[in-house]
Automatic annotation (TrEMBL):
One of its GO terms (molecular function) is oxidoreductase activity. The keyword Transmembrane helix applies. The chain crosses the membrane at residues 6-27. The keyword DNA repair does not apply. This is Nucleoside-diphosphate-sugar epimerase. The lineage of its organism: Bacteria, Pseudomonadati, Bacteroidota, Cytophagia, Cytophagales. It comes from Hymenobacter mucosus. It comes from the Bacteria. SUPFAM superfamilies: NAD(P)-binding Rossmann-fold domains (SSF51735). Keywords: Membrane, NADP, Oxidoreductase, Transmembrane, Transmembrane helix.
Amino acid sequence: MPDQSSSAAPATVVLAGATGALGLLIAHHLRQRGATVRALIRPASIHKAEAESLRVQGVEVVAVDYNSLPDLTQACAEAACVVSALSGLRDTIVDTQTRLLDAAVAAGVPRFIPSDYSADFTKLPEGSNRNFDLRREFQQRLDQAPIQATSILNGMFMDLLKGQAPVILPGPHRVVYWGDADQPLDFTTMVDTANFTAAAALDPTTPRYLRVAGEVASIRELQAIASAALGHPFMLFRAGSLGTLATMIKVTRTLMPAPNEIFPPWQGMQYLHNMLSGVAKLDRLDNARYPDIRYTKVGEILG
Ligand SMILES: NC(=O)c1ccc[n+]([C@@H]2O[C@H](COP(=O)([O-])OP(=O)(O)OC[C@H]3O[C@@H](n4cnc5c(N)ncnc54)[C@H](OP(=O)(O)O)[C@@H]3O)[C@@H](O)[C@H]2O)c1
């Protein structure tokens, strides 16, 4: 495990998107690990319950105009790392994150963690996932900036298996899939992703990419896990080939384009396609890098 205790003063980590679902968890784990946390929050959100919860945890809450490079630069001063947990479309993932990156560089911050937290989008072709295209676009800017960057790749949030991702269906006792039931898939809970991110933010020796998966399981293994965790047998339901899923994505996107939604149904289907095809599979896992983290398994969140 890299030495995180070499400096006497606790490291300051600047956190963007701290009022979000993942951001709040990252802030919590940073505090648990002894970091000083400065949360950058849009003025309109400064009175939200999430901002108050951050203050209660001892986080320094700073209202910042994300359109102002001088304000952002001042807010990044003295930080050891800037962590982004922003969520959005082009204006946020490309434009706002670029301003945050420019500010981090201007303030002399040595390290930057972008808001990736996903399957391995670096291996996907353009157009296969709208949200990942935006991350690759930002990645190009990040890789040209004079700052040490680390992306956290964690597969799908395991929590989504409890409902939002239509894979394990507790009603009809089916596990739905397209393509190959034996393709390994990566899952990590939001809590474990946040804990790993906090550890990485305080680790000056991180490489460009860190890959983590709380559990790697195929559809067939998910069937066994769901059957054991929920106490009744689940059947597999193959809805078609990956080509069928690709057609369904096109049809759904045409009928329900929802261009301003971050996670419209067709984008969730793109995510499933990326995973079920194996293209976005995480190659080599860095789970053991922070040995204090105990990873939650799929059976634990289903049961
Ligand atoms: N791997 C997976 O399965 C998976 C699933 C879901 C999410 N994710 C990823 O996890 C990351 C965090 O997502 P989340 O669900 O935690 O997001 P979230 O709950 O929607 O929170 C988004 C955060 O970003 C802030 N924000 C949004 N647009 C902004 C802007 N233009 N300027 C400044 N702040 C802005 C929000 O601030 P306000 O409070 O001011 O609105 C909020 O703090 C994203 O990269 C997302 O794609 C991964």
